[in-house]
């Protein structure tokens, strides 16, 4: 189990753009995608959210499907991003075993909530009944890519797609699959918007990760997928790579269902596992793409965890959720794409809206775009249920 | 490296959480769908936690705790489970409130409890387990994905004891909605008559089964888990031939070496042709058993079959109520479990005496 | 005031599903959180919704909630003060 695993393709769609090029332009111009809600039918349109700029019909037109086929927004976003990654890596031309591994929290809830009363009373929306479960979007993606050798779906709240990426690497290293399209997707829904609203952790302004006056998160939606391939394939096919997925770790906080432990013990464990797995030391890490949701609880807990591991030799830290919002199950995938772009461009993207350091912490996040000699990046994704995952991406 | 099943815990439409089922007491139902026989939860979970738990949470957490106790494992190294639909009851409570109150005056508990990894999270909190924790949600491969992950952990020495399980619950609304998919029988029959039924459709059910998988044999070992195979959307039954042959060859086995085949027959004629292919071509002379008349047909029912198979190997008896054909051979050594859901998701498990 | 306190006890028992708890088990002046009944942050959110649903009073920030929900008595006093009608 000693093969390295490399990132050979990227695909993304979020409130800051459709596709890698548009996303990179927005990142470089510090252009956040957070604003009013236009497409979701909700009374909370004024809550700042990272909704993608496309209606359901526009997304359907992009992938070439119709209403009668029962596609959820989550599935459509996933298909768009996964196809971009698949094509970017040139996967259609080869015969290797390809896994489709996807993380999601919403599944098809966006269509279920719209048609739930119909489901209970008539047959008019039956096409959407089987869109509800989480596995539906993954199978739609796999069939769209004509790649059904191996599929799975993971739902561990906000660490879902990071966990999919971690699993993909483990399956490749154990010879179960040769390559994978791994990441996640989540479409915006009233269910999650209202759910987070009842927890009183939504900021009614654009979010301020790692700021002492932060008031909570902005929800977002989107999909992010990376293609992972084994060292053998990369060498034999002379593939261009973005970076290496050098390490990963998953741990559980075992503290509370929704809150992280005050010292971020689960986060410490996850980052330590990833470092051990990668063979790297803390001083080898140049940047952390933080989970950084801007909730009162996460940022101080994650900050303390970072200080525990790195002491006074801290890497640069920023949360790109200040651009995209918190895309829940898709966040690990989206942030993996952004981390890979950082390595490719040798450029770090800032933590927008920051003014005042958190009193309990000894560091402030990065607030400007920086060109930097980036060797290794940690990307954190910490979910409800204390599910904490850290991925390490490295320059080749 | 070998993988052993050292503990089991099961809550199902049978009284499966204690010795009753294997002492010959089975349940049968004449109803739309099969409910579970429930233990006294206060015997397993403290009331402060219990008050917030939905049906699936209680079933999932309790069956996990039973498995851990059975294996004499205090804290597992990893918790991995699979569920197709997750926490339906809490999802419905929150969704109905959104629709009824037009997104106002909503309470958070149901939302928090509706996340798919809630059961795994609660087990981790109760057992203070900070290890690897994954929840798979891929339809009727959810339990299979969890088992594969657990096996990889053990084979790579990333863990010594893995808690792995599969669970799904059913609510009245869920039942009524999925009735529109025409998977279930239109008429109400007794569950014991399911396999002989000639009408289309099946009876659905629910339940939770957890296991301790380990890379070390112990006093509590039930069997060895040799391997599993999943096949997605084969066009015809004989399209499974090369995959199934390759699977058995990995262990130097052919169909003739299988002592018992446990089949996911579900009373739907169209569904039977897949099982007929396997029985005619691989196990024509061997003992056969079924399980869906006992637990219902639902996306993670293979976890119940796994519980049944592990117990059959340990006890070396095939309960009459599950038995279709008993060859009364000496020694049930190799058990093949074959299940499919709706003809699309097919899975095989091989369990062996050790 | 006693009537309001008793009503609140019933509502708290119902909303938080404290099935084994009786009215007399709840000391109106004892802390509801950490000690006393040992409620947690999820329960706090449920009580915020109860206050709005049953008494029309909204608490925007969970930090304000700490003072209001310290005990059944402090909750009753808050309601009396803001619901003169």
**Overall mean pLDDT of chain C:** 85
For the largest interface in this structure, which chains are involved and how many residues does each contribute? A-B, 62 and 57 residues
> Element order, helices and strands of chain C?
HHHH
- What is the assigned CATH homologous superfamily of the largest domain in chain A? Thiolase/Chalcone synthase
The number of helical segments of chain C is: 4
What is the CA–CA distance across the termini of chain C?
14 Å
**In angstroms, what separates the terminal alpha carbons of chain A?**
20 Å
- Percent helix range of chain C: 55-70%
The biggest sheet of chain A amounts to: 11 strands, mixed
Order of helices and strands of chain A: EEHHHEHHEHEHEHEHEHEHHEEEE
In short:
The complex is a heterotrimer of chains A (396), B (354) and C (85). Chain B is built from 11 helices and 11 strands.
Written description of the protein model:
The complex is a heterotrimer of chains A (about 400), B (about 350) and C (about 80). Chain A has helices spanning about 20-30, 55-65, 75-90, 110-120, 135-145, 160-175, 190-200, 230-235, 265-280, 295-310, 320-325, 330-345, and strands spanning about 5-15, 15-20, 100-105, 150-155, 180-185, 220-230, 245-250, 285-290, 315-320, 345-350, 370, 375-385, 385-395. Chain A is an alpha/beta fold and about 400 residues long. Chain A has two domains: about 5-235, 3-Layer(aba) Sandwich (Peroxisomal Thiolase, Chain A, domain 1), CATH 3.40.47.10; about 245-395, 3-Layer(aba) Sandwich (Peroxisomal Thiolase, Chain A, domain 1). In chain A, strands 1, 2, 3, 4, 5, 6, 7, 8, 9, 12 and 13 form an eleven-stranded mixed sheet that branches. In chain A, strands 10-11 form a two-stranded antiparallel ribbon. By secondary structure, chain B is of the alpha/beta class. Chain B has an eleven-stranded mixed sheet with strand order 3-2-4-5-1-6-11-10-7-8-9, sandwiched between helices. In chain B, helix 9 links the parallel strand 7 and strand 8 (about 285-290). Chain B is globular, with a radius of gyration of 20 Å. The chains are: A alpha/beta (about 400), B alpha/beta (about 350), C mainly alpha (about 80). At the A-B interface, helix 4, helix 5, strand 4, helix 6 and helix 7 of A face helix 3, helix 4, helix 5, strand 3 and helix 6 of B.
